[in-house]
Amino acid sequence: MTDSTVIIFDMDGTVLDSAPGILESLTYAIRQMGHDFIPVAETQKLFGPPMKQIVAELLAPYADDRVDECVHLYRSHYREQGLYKSFPYTGISNALSHFSNRNYSLFIATSKRQEFAEKMLTYNGLFNAFQSIFGTSPDGKLDDKADLVKALLASLAKPPSSVFMIGDKRDDMQAAQLNAIIPVGALWGYGAIDELKNSGAVALADTPWALPSVVDSLLPAA
Which UniProt key words apply to this protein (predicted)? Predict the structure, then answer.
């Protein structure tokens, strides 16, 4: 029954390319901490987990454990500047329209703070494409992606016939498995193909344009 199909999207690296703003705000924050930080190509591969985890890894080479202070600097800069330096991936709007036309219910589950996610999707004209946005909160209760997805599923009025998790990183695939839903890897994002395969993706989409056919092929026959 396609009318009870649910698709949960990760946001960064799946719906929006937010790398420019994240890198700018991280660079600002770490330099404010007194370090001569210059982002490299590998930095982008860290994206996906909660920001505290990313910052801790970036501060480690400096033997600096002031993670909370750095995250505060990052979020202050990101709120004012970084979040506006994001854009939808080419083809994602078409994929969302395809799913909406088939009456699939679309959601966002992101490790980004709720306020940032809502502002970014609104700024990029995609807020209304989703039935609901699930982001993290300052209390950190839903920082684990599996817990976030679990909370989203618990909010549904009735159990859907099929549920997919579309994401570009390991934590997306693992969150799907832990919640017994179908993990589909987005190869256009920040994760590598081996990362997605090894963390349980049952299918991979090369581009947003290819996503509808990948998802539809995994639905049970009518």
Answer: Metal-binding
Token pair 């994929």 is found at 95
Fold of 18-84: DNA polymerase; domain 1 (1.10.150)
What is residue 2's predicted lDDT score, i.e. its pLDDT? 40
In one-letter notation, the amino acid at residue 29 is A
pLDDT per position as a tens digit, 76-134: 999 999 999 999 999 999 999 999 999 999 999 999 999 999 999 999 999 999 999 99
pTM for the structure as a whole: 0.90
Q: Is 9 helix (H, G, I), strand (E, B) or coil?
A: strand
The whole-angstrom distance between residue 40's C-alpha and the CA centroid of its chain comes to: 21
CATH number of this structure's domain 6-17+87-218, picked from the four choices 2.130.10.10, 3.40.50.300, 2.10.109.10, 3.40.50.1000: 3.40.50.1000
Measured at the CA of 169, the angle between CA 167 and CA 174, to 5 degrees, comes to 85
Q: Where are the domains of the chain?
A: 6-17+87-218, 18-84
Residue 200 backbone dihedrals phi, psi, to 5 degrees: 110, 10
Of the candidates 72, 75, 49, the residue with the CA atom closest to the CA atom of residue 168: 49
DSSP assignment string, 69-91: HHHHHHHHHHHHTGGGS-EEPTT
Half-sphere exposure of 165 (CA within 13 A, CB side): 32
Q: Among the residues of the chain, which ranges form H helices? A: 19-32, 51-59, 67-80, 92-101, 114-123, 145-154, 170-178, 193-198, 211-218
Which residues of the chain, if any, have pLDDT below 70? 1-3, 222
